[in-house]
Each structure stands twice: as structure tokens, then as C-alpha cells.
Amino acid sequence: MFREAVDAGRFSRLSWAVRASQDSMETLTRSGLAEAIFAQVGLSRSESALLLESVLEAMSRSLEAGEAVKITGFGTFAVRSKGQRIGRNPKTGEEVPISPRRVLTFRPSQQLRARINGEPIPAEPVPA
Q1: Partners of 107 in the beta sheet?
Q2: pLDDT grade, residue 107 (50/70/90)?
């Protein structure tokens, strides 16, 4: 059913949800994304929520395993390891050790950067 909706053009990258979010300066939430899937793909609300949850779970598992998640035309999520370092307490000036940790990073695609800045959107690369 999802593939048919994409082929029929009913699934336009959730553009209306993003536009609505930009217009009102509100945060696009999980329920907002599920509602956009419901409206554009034609799945039931519960199926839309399950689809979104499964996509987010797959992304989370990949990131947990240290794999990058690349969404063409949107950007790349990656986990980066940071080593231990010495920081300072801004109030007291006292040196404090900062333990090693993993941080999530996001690098937007050129297309997303152009959309955010109101510039012409560069063509997407053709998959090989």
C-alpha cells in the first residue's frame, strides 16, 4: 500500500507538514509526522503511527550500533566518539574531567541547506 501511494504521487516528502510547521513556527512532532503519513499515503492513523515508529526504531538501532543513517536529499545522522578531556566549571574556574562519550551529529544535505536558505535546490544525484 505504501509503495502504491508513493507511485501515485500522494507522498510528497511530507511537504505540507513541514510547510505548516514553518508557517506557524511550531515544532514538527512525532504525531504530526504520523498525521502527515495518514493524510498523504492513505494508511489508517494507527498504521501510519506504526510505520513511523518502525522507521524511527530502525534508525535508532543503526545509530546505536555506530552506523550512519543517510537519507538522500535530507542529511546524514552519525555517531561520533569524543575522548576524555579537561573542562572548566564556569562559576568557579575549577578544572573538571569530562568523561569520554558518544554524541549524535547531523549533517544536512545540500538540498536541505538550499531549502532552508531559500536558494535554488540543486539536483539530486542519480543513484548508480
Answers
A1: 76
A2: very high
Please give the single-letter amino acid code of residue 92: T
**SS3 for 9-68, per residue?**
CCCCCCHHHHHHHHHHCCCCCHHHHHHHHHHHHCCCHHHHHHHHHHHHHHHHHHHHCCCC
pLDDT band for position 121 (50/70/90)? confident
Nearest to 75 by CA among 53, 54, 104, 51: 104
Which helix (H) or strand (E) is 77 found in, with range?
strand 75-82
Place of cell 536541505: 112
